[in-house]
């Protein structure tokens, strides 16, 4: 069975994102060269790290949160304790990783707070960067663009939102209520300053993981994944995307940088971000600027997909290629998705065993698969026919037959005039009431997927 080796990221964005497509349409045109290169895993296997001290220290003042206690135990008023069945040594290595969230003032309150009660209850070191200095409770949010050339900020129209945010701050107006736009235009300028500031704030972390506010990290999986990697080497991991001939780690999927790489790039030149201001202005996106930065310093991206994964559980393309691989990240996670995944992880994370894609399938996808669903987008991608003359009278049954006749097909989607099939299995999403799209799965074939046992 053969799968497409290159897939476009943008058309695969979630339905929720597609709802905003009108706003984004103008921008999409500039992004047609933004590809994700899927393929088999290829990790550089490094020698074993010395085992680190599992006891958790009080973080320094520049941490985004001042931790109330020196242990990971939750206050007793909480119903459950995160990973209560895991021993501290199962989270060994937490001290070595700095987690960096990159967000923006217009989305922050929608996406970030859920992490305060989930992810960040067991991540001891992190920082949050946005486009304005602010606080959320005890959490300090840093303005990632403070150091950006002032004259340029005032002249470049991409900074319109940034200047508005700073001007409106004393007025205490929520940017969401004001309907401020321009978050996307501003975004690409943030990554490089976020990277250099994060390093200056904590230069002794072994690893720096950069994610967005709608990224979910499976923390115990990440720590295990890091165990055979050498932080002293200049390493840059991520899920490959490409722009202007530079392969870079896709930002929402998360990119991971070793201390060795940080020393090489920022340690030796603390003002390096300034040199990339022009690059940012001419780039599609901030994660590309990071790729260019490392490329210019001779550090190439090491492929970390499918473990570093750009989809939420409902649009992951399940097939054999990733079935037994550990999951490290999910992207496009709404706050409720983060909570769901957190509960699942809390129940299912075990000391010596990764949560793999097959586990996600079993918990999030398979229970949802029934023969057919009305008003449902199953994200099938291979076109069988679409609005072709004379095809408009073809039916759901014709579409199902097209899938059955193709031995690789596992699911299909039908809407009048259009039939799409797919070798992957995806749960997909319920559509707004009244939508006539209908999805079907060939259950004998989706069950066959489950028969593959993974080595444990
Ligand atoms: C900021 O940019 C302006 C215009 O490009 C330049 O003249 C100025 O030297 C820059 N300032 C700094 C501090 O780099
Ligand atoms: C995960 O935890 C749930 C309980 O929340 C349990 O029902 C399920 O069997 C577990 N899944 C796995 C793969 O262990
Ligand atoms: C579908 O429509 C085309 C022309 O619109 C016609 O030629 C064909 O016979 C129709 N097929 C069926 C199965 O009704
Ligand atoms: C995610 C995705 O590709 N969804 C598609 C499902 O099928 C409809 C109809 O063809 C497309 O419009 C969606 O884009």
Automatic annotation (TrEMBL):
One of its GO terms (cellular component) is membrane. Pathway: Protein modification; protein glycosylation. Residues 199-246 form the Fringe-like glycosyltransferase domain. It is a single-pass type II membrane protein. Pfam families: Fringe. Keywords: Glycosyltransferase, Membrane, Nucleotide-binding, Signal-anchor, Transferase, Transmembrane, Transmembrane helix. It is found in: Membrane. It is an enzyme of class 2 (transferase). The keyword Glycosyltransferase applies. InterPro entries: C1GALT1/C1GALT1_chp1, Fringe-like_glycosylTrfase. The chain crosses the membrane at residues 17-37. GO terms for molecular function: glycoprotein-N-acetylgalactosamine 3-beta-galactosyltransferase activity; nucleotide binding. The keyword Ion transport does not apply. Its EC number is 2.4.1.122. It comes from the Eukaryota. Belongs to the glycosyltransferase 31 family. Beta3-Gal-T subfamily. This is N-acetylgalactosaminide beta-1,3-galactosyltransferase. It comes from Glutinoglossum americanum.
């Amino acid at each position: 069975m053969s799968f497409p080796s290159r897939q476009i990221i943008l058309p695969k964005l979630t339905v929720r994102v597609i709802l905003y497509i009108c706003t984004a349409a103008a921008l999409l045109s500039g992004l047609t060269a933004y590809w994700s290169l899927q393929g088999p895993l290829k990790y550089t296997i490094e020698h074993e790290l010395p085992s680190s001290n599992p006891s958790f220290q009080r973080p320094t003042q520049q941490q985004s949160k001042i931790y109330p206690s020196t242990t990971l135990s939750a206050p007793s008023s909480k119903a459950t304790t995160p990973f209560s069945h895991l021993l501290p040594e199962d989270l060994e290595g937490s001290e070595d990783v700095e987690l960096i969230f990159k967000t923006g003032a217009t989305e922050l309150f929608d996406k970030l707070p859920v992490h305060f009660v989930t992810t960040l209850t067991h991540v001891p070191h992190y920082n949050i960067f946005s486009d304005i200095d602010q606080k959320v409770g005890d959490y300090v949010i840093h303005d990632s663009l403070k150091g950006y050339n002032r004259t340029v900020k005032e002249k470049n129209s991409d900074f319109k939102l940034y200047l508005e945010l700073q001007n409106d701050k004393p007025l205490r107006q929520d940017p969401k209520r004001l309907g401020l736009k321009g978050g996307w235009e501003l975004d690409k300028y943030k990554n490089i300053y976020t990277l250099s500031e994060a390093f200056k704030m904590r230069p002794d972390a072994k690893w720096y993981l950069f994610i967005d506010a709608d990224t979910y990290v499976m923390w115990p999986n990440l720590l295990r994944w890091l165990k055979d990697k050498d932080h002293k080497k200049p390493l840059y991991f991520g899920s490959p995307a490409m722009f202007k001939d530079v392969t870079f780690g896709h930002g929402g999927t998360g990119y991971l940088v070793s201390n060795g790489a940080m020393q090489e790039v920022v340690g030796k030149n603390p003002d390096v971000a300034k040199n990339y201001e022009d690059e940012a202005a001419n780039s599609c996106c901030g994660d590309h600027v990071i790729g260019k930065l490392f490329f210019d310093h001779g550090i190439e991206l090491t492929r970390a997909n499918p473990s570093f994964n750009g989809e939420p559980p409902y649009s992951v393309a399940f097939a054999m290629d990733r079935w037994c691989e550990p999951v490290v990240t999910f992207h496009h996670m709404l706050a409720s998705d983060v909570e769901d995944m957190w509960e699942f992880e809390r129940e299912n994370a075990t000391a010596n065993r990764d949560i793999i894609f097959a586990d996600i399938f079993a918990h999030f996808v398979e229970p949802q698969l029934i023969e057919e669903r009305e008003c449902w987008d199953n994200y099938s991608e291979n076109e069988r026919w679409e609005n072709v003359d004379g095809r408009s009278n073809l039916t759901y049954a014709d579409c199902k037959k097209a899938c059955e006749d193709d031995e690789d097909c596992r699911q299909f989607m039908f809407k009048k005039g259009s039939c799409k099939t797919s070798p992957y299995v995806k749960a997909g999403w319920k559509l707004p009431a009244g939508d006539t799209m209908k999805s079907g799965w060939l259950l004998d074939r989706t069950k066959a997927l489950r028969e593959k046992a993974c080595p444990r």
